[in-house]
Amino acid sequence: MVRPRNEAEKFFSINRNSHMKCLVTGGAGFIGAHVVRELLAKQFQVVVLDDLSGGFRDNVPDAAELVRGDICDHDLVDRLFAQHGFDYVYHLAAYAAEGLSHFIKRYNYNNNLIGSVNLINAAVNHDVKSFVFTSSIAVYGANQLPMREDMIPQPEDSYGIAKLGVEQELKCSHEMFGLDYVIFRPHNVYGEYQNIGDRYRNVIGIFMNQIMQGKPLTIFGDGTQSRAFSYVGPVAAVIAGSPEVDAARNRVFNIGADQPWSVNELAKAVGQVMGVEPQIDYLPARNEVLHAYSDHSLVKECFGQAEDVSLEDGLEIMAKWALKHGARVTKPFANIEIDRNMPPSWRAQLKATPIPVVDTLPTFENPSTV
Ligand SMILES: NC(=O)c1ccc[n+]([C@@H]2O[C@H](COP(=O)([O-])OP(=O)(O)OC[C@H]3O[C@@H](n4cnc5c(N)ncnc54)[C@H](O)[C@@H]3O)[C@@H](O)[C@H]2O)c1
Fold this sequence. Notes:
Elements: H1 7-18, E1 21-25, H2 30-41, E2 45-50, E3 65-68, H3 74-84, E4 88-91, H4 105-125, E5 130-134, H5 158-177, E6 181-186, E7 189-190, H6 203-212, E8 217-220, E9 226-227, E10 230-231, H7 232-241, E11 251-255, E12 261-262, H8 263-274, E13 280-283, E14 291-292, H9 297-303, H10 311-325, H11 344-352, E15 368-369
Parallel strand pairs: 1-2, 1-4, 2-3, 4-5, 5-6, 6-11, 7-10, 8-13, 9-14
Antiparallel strand pairs: 3-15, 9-12
This protein binds nicotinamide-adenine-dinucleotide.
Nicotinamide-adenine-dinucleotide binds near residues 25, 52, 55 and 96.
């Protein structure tokens, strides 16, 4: 039987937590913004490392310290770890445009793989107690339904390959150096703080942005492809609490909603919460996994049954937020490395907008606390 905690124990627990120092990479991004709020609610001290390439300063609450910088800058990463002595690292920073990753391989591997290795090195060298990593169901590839953690990953795009590389590096760093980790493979997460201006990812945000601009909704293919769209709240809560669940140590978990929906069904549901009858513009199909949903038995067994937020309820919450904040400008990605076989709508956009030639990764100012 669980013994009720007395006041002293409760105080001790809060006091102990208040000394927990966490680094959240990508904390100015969508899921990161929710994880940061969960950690602050636990009285943790939170430092966010984010280069604001896809996130927003406004997403970070004042109670967290925001360091603007790049995870690819290993000197900065090492200095931050030396300065703060983090207990837990939540590594969410990535450019998560799965479909685009074929065309930006170098950027994808630098940012998502090498940047992650910088953090793993620092975590080993500075005795981090738990390294929490958001991987993706992109590691599974096609035709493995429902996706289960015991399946052999067969990623089909550069983004999924980079995520799998980081997962394997974490396993190897655990074996070699005892670095404890928890890996999550989320899928199609949506909700407040999402960058609805990113034209290459997050179909729900793209739809809401198109509706607010009076544009038709664009769908690749016939719209029968399906995904289990997952409201962010329960996902962020599990990620934030995971280092404190002993049974989760050094394990991999699918996380998200169970129920798949077709993109056509989604378009209708988004139209409803935004109060419009959407026009749909069907574009040529792109090269993507047609159906993706995963089995969540493991995460439920380890963390308990998460709160069930229906698609209608989750969309309603996000629509309120999106309508309050308004449409966002969408920009094409500036450094395409291969344009062959790009979806025509993406390629047309590149031609319509003169792109400055940049042959190195974006650099950011000296790290500064902002
Ligand atoms: N949203 C989803 O449906 C989903 C699904 C599966 C996995 N994930 C993973 O979850 C994590 C968070 O995703 P999200 O949807 O919140 O994305 P997001 O783009 O909203 O957040 C990512 C953040 O990382 C930052 N970032 C990117 N590169 C960086 C760098 N080099 N240095 C510092 N900061 C950098 C961006 O500025 C952004 O704030 C990612 O790792 C993503 O791969 C997301």
